[in-house]
Amino acid sequence: MKADPHMIQKKICMVGAFATGKTSLVSRFVHSIFSEKYQTTVGVKIDKKIINIQDKQINFILWDLYGEDEFQKIQISYLRGSSGYLLVVDGTRKNTLEKAFDLQKIVENAIGKVPFILVLNKWDLTNEWEITDTELATITQQGWSAIKTSAKTGLGVEEVFQNLAQKILEG
């Protein structure tokens, strides 16, 4: 697909704790692939994908940031210029939801209020799920958009990016 010079370009950051599936979600969305092999993101990995929404083409520039843990803090400079972000949680590890709440505040303090979606990844592992429906209800009552995904099966992945594009266009 040839790039249209009038195409809208939007920087999107993938934010979340260590090993929540950020890279796998990007691989599934951009290349339609999933690998069982775990790859640690060092720094940031950038991918692009053109999506069509509301008769417009948007070139998503996806910044896959390394996962935050007790040893690494998110680089605020990576967030600058973002039009939106996906806050990725591993549904099988409840502590990644708590980390997501902290990261959401960090991102908002760094770049202001921009559209985001809470991505509840690894839905294919529902028998290992640690986040309750009650917790999810509380999140959505706060006005957050939350979508269950599986980078492995592809469930919800396209929907997440389409919804974020919609929020950005409405913004």
TrEMBL record:
Keyword annotations of the record: GTP-binding, Nucleotide-binding
Keyword Nucleotide-binding: yes
Entry-linked Gene3D superfamilies: P-loop containing nucleotide triphosphate hydrolases (3.40.50.300)
NCBIfam families: small_GTP
GO MF assignments: GTP binding; GTPase activity
Protein name, as recorded: GTP-binding protein
